[in-house]
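ok here's dolichol kinase:
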Amino acid sequence: MSRRRGGYSGTAGAARTAAKEEQSKSEPQETQPKDNYSALDELLAPDVIVQLFILCISIHFAFAKYGGFQGPFFLHFQNCAIIVIAILVSAYSKYKSSGYNPGTLPKFQVFYSFYLPFMLSLLFNERLTLVNSALVLNIVEIPLPFRIPMQWMLIQLQAPEDSPKAPIQSFLAIIINYVFSIVLAKISHLKSLDNVDCSLFSILLTDVLFLIQSDSIYFQVLKNTLLAFLIVVSFNYVMSFLLSSFSDGYMRSIMLFTSFVAGTPFIIKKLLIIDEKDPLDWLLDYISGSKTRITILSTWLISLFVLVPNILIFKSNFSLNTSRKVWHFLILLLISKPFLMDPEFVKISLAGTIVLFLTVEYLRYLKLQPFGEYLDARLRLFSDFRDDKGPIIISYIYLIIGVTAPLLIANSPVGLISLGVGDSLASIIGGKWGKRYWPGTTKTVEGTLAFVVSTSATMYFFKENLGYFNGISHTNLCIVCLLSGLLEGNSTLNDNILIPAFMLIIERLLCE
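and the structure:
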C-alpha cells in the first residue's frame, strides 16, 4: 500500500472525493521509456536490486538449510534454475522479436509467480515442489501445444518417487491449472488481477482442489466448500446464457441468486461429510460441545454487530487509507488470542470465511438482486485504486487469504502481524509523516521503519506472552521483520499476499 499523505473530511461526499484524490496520487504512474533505454535498466532499478538481494538471501538460506549441492533437495534447486532460465529466455526472445521494444519486457514481479510457489512448496509440502514449478511455465509465452508437453515432460523425467508423477494425474494438474488461469484472466479482464496474480491463484486452486491430500477437518471444509462454490458458479454461468433470451435482467438476476443460495448448501451437504454426519449438524454439535468455542463464537458475533456498523458510520471521519487499516487491526485482535484457545476451530472458521468472502464478491460482481447493489455500494466505500482498476474488488479477498494461509499452513501468526500491525502502521505513519521515498516507489523509508519496529515488537510480545514463535530466536525474528520490511517498501506486488507469504518463508528458514 502506498503511503501518500491523507487528510480528514467532514462529510461522506467530501471523504469520497478525498479518497479518489488519494487513489490517483497513490497509483503508480507509468513513465515513457527513454530513447536510450536498455534491458538492463529494468534490472538495475534500485527497487529491483533491493528485491533481488532479499530473494537471493532467502534462496541462499534455503540452499544451505537443505544441504547445498549434496542435499536431498538439490534436484529442486536445479529445476528452479531451469525455470528461471526459461522465463528469461522467453522474455528476451519477445524483446528481441519486437525490435528491442522495452514495453515488451515483463515487470520484475513476474519472478514472484515462480518464487512463491517454489519456496512455499519446498518448505511446507516438498512433494509438490516439482509440480508447482512446472505449472509456473503457464506464465511463459510459449505456444500452448508446446508448453503443456514441456510441463508434463519436466514432471515425468525428474519427479522423485513420492511426488505426484503419475502420467494422468500430472497431465490433469497441468490442464486444471491452465483452465483456472484462463478463467481468472477472463473474469478480471487482466486488470483486477494481472498475469502474476492469475498464475499464483491458479496454482493455489490446483493445489487445494486437486493435488493436496489431507484428512484435517479444516482442509476438508476449505476444499469442499470451495468446490461447491465453483460448481454452482459454473452452473449459473451456463444458466445465464439460457435465460438471457427469454427473461429481463431483473428476473434473470433473481433466478441466478436463487440458484446460488439454494444450490451451494445442497452441494456442500453432498460433498462434505464429517464423522458420517450432515455438515450443519456436525458443526452445531462441534460448537455446542465446547464452552471455549461458544465463547469464541460469541465474542466474534458481538464484535461484528458492534464494530461493523460503527466503522461504516464513522468511516467518513477518516481517510480512505486509515479506514481500510482498521479492518486489518480488528482481524489481529479477533484471531490471535482465540487461535491459542482452540486452533482447530479457528482454522475451520477461517477456511469457511474464505469461501464466504468469495460468495460476497460473486453477488457483488454480478450485482445479483436483492443484495448485489447494496454490497457493491458498501464495499466501494473502502476500495482503493487497485480495486477500481477492474471489475473485482480484490483487497478484502487478498486480506483474508494473507491472514489465513500462514495459520492453515504452519500455525503461524505472521499474516496477522504483518497485515494487522506492520502494513497498517507503515501505511498510516508513512502517509502522515513520511518524507523520504524509496527510489522508484511511492513508499517511504519512515513507513518501512514503522513496519520493522512494530512487527519486531509485536513478534517479541507474541513469543514471550502468547506462546508463538517457540522455534526461533529473538534475533532471527528481527531479521524476519527487517527483510520483510525492506521487501514491503520496494515491491509492487500486492502486500496482502506477498508479505505474509515471504514472512512465513523466512520464519521457517530461520527456525533453529
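+1. The two ends are 32 Å apart (CA to CA).
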